DNA sequence: GGTGGTAGGTTGCAAATGCAACAAAAATGG
DNA sequence: CCATTTTTGTTGCATTTGCAACCTACCACC
């Protein structure tokens, strides 16, 4: 009966929520927490903007995107959800807050949905798993927080050039001058909240000025 | 000996981390978690940018500010810390991450510092307090996350007018047209990452266009 | 090897913004 | 109540940016 999780065990083990747990412990946990397996076909909405959420999700296969629609109707990509990663975690933790984003499957996907209540509650057996998981979750939250903070750092720069430099600095592994960004140009422009063509223009200028060099999403800081 | 917390009991009870606990339970917890009482005089640095933090703090009296110094040497106000509120929480949860901000006491202040390890660990007595506190903490994290998200929403608007409107919308209690912002003009400009004078100009225009009216930090949306 | 599609670069122009310097108004402290 | 300081508003100007339209390079697919 609980075989349904078996084929995803590798993916589940990679989920940061389960770091430090064995496959068996994870399986136990999923049963004890009444996790559900959900399937979504490409294009299907997983969470709607404005919806209230009480489950957290782990993407088991496929891919999803969180997009935000502003009051004027423009859609912005807010986040990518990839295999083995959590989504709706901070949302569920908000208990009653409305989702600021719409999450949509961009490929046929499956996800493990765990009721938030059972993430918080300890089970009768008083097993140690719950503690580890909560601790892991807190770590995840902290990381997401730092990510947002980093983005804000980029966004608060007043000029495109400064935004770009801040972004590069954030992705720079210490010492290295080569930086590989996880965006294409449009993604990068979106992340920095600037016009794509304005970004291209500025990148060209910066290259000409000799501050940076680049090729696609590979940048060199000089 | 543990009388040192007594005079702050009111403040501690208001701390979101302790919601749902009685005064006695809080006192117990502070002892069991080896909390320390720290005093800071006005102007003193509580946390330095770049420092690694392993305690969370509750401001018991006074006031503090988190400021961020960018690579060009400009200082930005990142957050205000007021009585009974947590600080360094997500930082401590980051375990090993460097503080992106400097926290400085803007008045003579005192704070309760709790080792992060003891926030996570359950004590021998296996008391229920720890669970409540962890749960509260997660709620706090979620709230802070939404705050950041809201700010990003403001920052990603491409025009000053849209930034202002987004900000007002976020602070609007449903139905009401009157919005009271927790900033002065400079604070507001900082939050939105725009020039103060540009903000003033745009606010005047918006008033003239009849979209809003305002007086100090009190705004009316029409 | 052609073809269609997509990502990225370029450019002109109008509009928006940063910046600096100053003016006005309000708060503060004697 | 006056003097001083702080906060807020105003304005001119140079710069930056958004926007739209178009071009080019590259890639996948037949």
If you had to describe this structure to a student in words, what would you say it looks like?
The structure is a homodimer of 222-residue chains. The first copy, chain A, is of the alpha+beta class and 222 residues long. Chain A is 40% helix and 23% strand. Chain A is built from eight helices and eleven strands. In chain A, helix 5 packs antiparallel against helix 6. The first copy, chain A, is elongated. The termini of chain A are far apart. The model of chain A has no long low-confidence stretch (mean pLDDT 91). The interface between A and B is large, with 41 and 41 residues. Chain A binds a DNA duplex (30 and 30 nucleotides) through helix 8.
User: If interface size is counted as residues with C-beta under 8 Å from the partner's C-beta, which chains form the largest one?
Assistant: A-B, 41 and 41 residues
N-end to C-end Cα span of chain A: 58 Å
The largest sheet of chain A, given as strand count, sense and whether it forms a barrel, is: 4 strands, antiparallel
Helix count of chain A equals 8
How many strand elements of chain A? 11
Stretches with pLDDT under 50, minimum 5 residues of chain A: none
